[in-house]
Amino acid sequence: MKADRLVELLLLLQARPRCTARELAGELEVSERTIYRDVEALGAAGVPVFAERGANGGIALSEGYRRALLQFGDEEIQALFISGSALVADLGLAGKGERALEKLRGGLSDIQRRAAESVRGRVFIDQRRWFQSDPSVERLSLLRRAVWDDRIISLQYKDREGKASDRLAEAYGLVSKAGVWYLIARTDAGFRSFRVDRMVEVRVEERRFERDLTFELEGYWREMAARMNSERPTFAAIVRIDDEDVRATLCGYYRTECVRPDDAKVVRVYFSSKNAAVRNAIAWGDSVELLEPRSARAAVARRARDMAERYSAMRLKSPSNSATKRKKRAAPAPSITR
């Protein structure tokens, strides 16, 4: 595409003080005539590019324009090139971000390029929690286009209780939190957040909406998150977690604090309720021991006794035993009279 070629041409000129049309044509695999046409297109777009004839001539950007990219510091370059493109891939843009960085790398100085290459193997960001499934790229791609085009969407949605409902909403933005994607949309009831993984069906309408220019996505999300954190009930319990996988799961889902500097296995976990603390202690079995408070520990003991009585009282019928009993109860074969 011509747009991609213009960007590559601009980055080549950014990286070198001066290039001949022949050199640029070889790099971009086009004719010299095409290079001159692209230079004219850049100039028409406001890019200060010029061509000089003669032995020392060539095509170049004005010095002030070239310096803009070269003024990036090492830490700024490192921030751009840190690995971790899962979020971009979720939105159906896998590979696009990497290609953009490759184009940007071509416009860096040698020192900056080495700084960019060094950080790629040193920092990697994984947005997913442990054992978390990948989101639907197809659905997120659809929502991304709806957000960018200011489209109205109709969706069938299930709430946390599993109750389904049909909604009509204006797609304002997408937010990813710990690998879970949310659509921020305006409905008749105002702005709402919808978990993408609870959407049963999504359809993008032909109709567009007029975006509220005062709406700011990050501010809305931070305000909503702060409100949820302040309103959410918590129940603090001290537990011992012996299994590393269980520790990763609990610490990834609940807020935790270390309470004993000499024993990292003992942590304070902020559950949503006392019942949630008891359920988790039962569910994780001997991998977790609920130490405090005593009332919760006593509740775990009562629940464990109830479960033990329930399962010890059950009499499971084995299919093989049932078949044997049926054979024993079968009628005797008729005698033969001579």
UniProtKB/TrEMBL annotation:
InterPro entries given in the database record: CBASS_pafABC_assoc_protein, DeoR_HTH, HTH_11, PafC-like, WCX_dom, WH-like_DNA-bd_sf, WH_DNA-bd_sf, WYL_dom
Region annotation (Disordered) ranges: 311-338
Pfam families reported for this sequence: HTH_11, WCX, WYL
Keywords, comma-separated and alphabetical: Transcription, Transcription regulation
Domain HTH deoR-type, first and last residues per copy: 2-57
MF terms (GO), sorted A to Z: DNA-binding transcription factor activity
UniProt-listed PROSITE patterns: HTH_DEOR_2, WYL
Protein name, per record: HTH deoR-type domain-containing protein
Organism: mine drainage metagenome
